[in-house]
Design brief:
By secondary structure, this protein is mainly alpha-helical. Helices cover 54% and strands 5% of the residues. It starts with a helix and ends in a 6-residue tail after the last strand.
């Protein structure tokens, strides 16, 4: 009996210690999160998911309420993501515009591809008509970030690739007017990814698909410039379109949406609405202290804020060193996670990698603006200028700066009558227009300069 008494005493002591441990961890975690929230909100950051819900819009002004648009460009509840439009557009020659792997290289190839893809002209006309509507709000439940409707990225990508390839074909055939028509639709179609005009909510995946489609757009413009296929009217129109592209604002907004989504998920999980048994059955993590989830939320919010702070949207520049530090910190958490980082290790996307891709494609856009002005100068004078300053104001109103560092993009005319235009790249060092290639022949974006004359990989 005496031994049994001591066993009960020890068990009671252990229970008390465990209870104190849970209480301490819960108090510590909740306090850390409340302090973190106050600091972020004092900076003007918005953590409430409700702030990211798009307001209702009139059906007759909504892109997704136009005929076929919801069916084609909103992801269905389950796979497959293909639909009647994308299944018909499947063709091995679609895509790869501007790359060495592009199979359409002759006028005969171009005529063949156009003859095949002409069947989609009525569909493109439907999209053009729908894009005249000022709003782009998908039908669905926005009350939870995990229930929101999302674009059908397969459809968006497929349509963009077909339009880019058709523009390439028209350039091969000396029809820049028709190429501009296809590229204008490609560029305008990005509005469905941006949730025009509110930009709510902008998920990171949608923002990065937007970045990729913009890269395809700029690469197709470069394809025509390398061939001297564009003429003055098209160059003026393309410059205007390029000038209006600012990818950073959408991507950074998606960073904030990611944080609000995580906040909603964890705070909802910890809200005492379910019984312990329901949590065991549905969540399977009831014995983890709530405080650990709050601490993970602090980690998520801090990493997210570092990603946001890695951009200066006022000056429209990115800070690669800060982004590289963030990436190293994330990878360290992924390798050696603990109670305060176990969820953050799997839930936080690599913001630094997304930021580098964004910076590279925005650089393509900025380069393309200048390259169009250079081509207009070449059409007028038969040569490129000695300095880009000679382009203003006749050929370009304002020269875009390097998104890395904020200095002017580097330019010089070469002895063979061409030019080199480049950004200092992610290493923030002027390597004189030198491109570093990987073993597979693609550009190493971490090293060397980002040079316009090289095709996109």
């Amino acid at each position: 009996m005496k031994a049994l008494k001591w066993i009960f005493i020890v068990l009671a002591g252990l229970i008390i210690l465990v209870a104190l441990f849970y209480a301490e961890e819960d108090w510590r975690g909740k306090r850390a999160w409340e302090n973190c929230k106050r600091e972020l909100e004092a900076k003007g950051e918005v953590l409430d998911w409700n702030a990211y819900i798009p307001p209702p819009v009139p059906d007759d002004q909504n892109f997704f309420k136009a005929p076929k648009m919801q069916e084609w460009f909103v992801k269905p509840g389950q796979y497959p993501a293909t639909n009647e439009l994308t299944s018909q557009m499947t063709d091995p020659r679609t895509g790869s515009v501007g790359a060495k792997t592009n199979s359409i290289v002759t006028e005969a190839d171009a005529r063949s591809y156009l003859a095949w893809s002409d069947q989609f002209e009525p569909d493109f006309d439907l999209i053009r008509e729908a894009l005249k509507r000022p709003y782009a709000r998908m039908d669905g439940d926005y009350s939870s970030p995990f229930e929101i409707p999302i674009p059908n990225f397969v459809a968006v990508r497929t349509v963009a690739q077909v339009l880019a390839q058709r523009a390439h074909c028209y350039l091969l055939l000396g029809r820049p007017d028709k190429a501009l028509q296809e590229l204008t639709l490609l560029n305008d179609s990005r509005r469905m990814l941006e949730g025009a005009p509110t930009g709510k909510p902008t998920t990171l995946v949608a923002a990065m698909i937007n970045v990729a489609v913009t890269g395809l757009y700029a690469n197709t413009i470069a394809d025509g410039l390398q061939r001297h296929a564009w003429q003055e009217p098209q160059l003026v129109a393309l410059q205007k379109q390029l000038q209006e592209i600012n990818l950073a604002s959408f991507v950074i907004e998606s960073f904030r949406e990611e944080r609000a989504s995580a906040t909603y998920m964890i705070e909802t999980l910890l809200r005492p609405k379910e019984s312990l048994w329901q949590k065991v059955k549905n969540v399977r993590i009831p014995f983890i202290p709530h405080g650990w989830f709050y601490q993970n939320l602090v980690t998520i919010a801090v990493l997210n804020q570092k990603a946001t702070d890695g951009w200066n949207l006022v000056q429209n520049i990115v800070l690669p060193r800060e982004m590289n530090d963030l990436l190293r910190e994330q990878k360290a958490i992924e390798r050696h996670y603990g109670p305060y980082t176990f969820f953050a290790a799997i839930a936080v996307p690599h913001y630094a990698i997304a930021s580098q891709t964004l910076a590279y494609n925005q650089t393509l856009v900025n380069d393309a603006q200048i390259a169009c002005a250079l081509e207009r100068y070449w059409l007028a004078h038969g040569e490129y200028p000695e300095t880009p300053g000679a382009l203003a104001p006749r050929f370009i109103e304002k020269l875009p700066h390097d998104i890395i560092g904020g200095q002017p993009l580097h330019y010089h005319r070469t002895d063979d009558g061409r030019f080199v235009l480049y950004s200092v790249g992610w290493n923030e060092v002027d390597d004189g227009g030198k491109v570093v290639l990987k073993e597979d022949g693609s550009m190493d974006r971490d090293k060397g300069d980002w040079v316009w004359q090289y095709p996109v990989k």
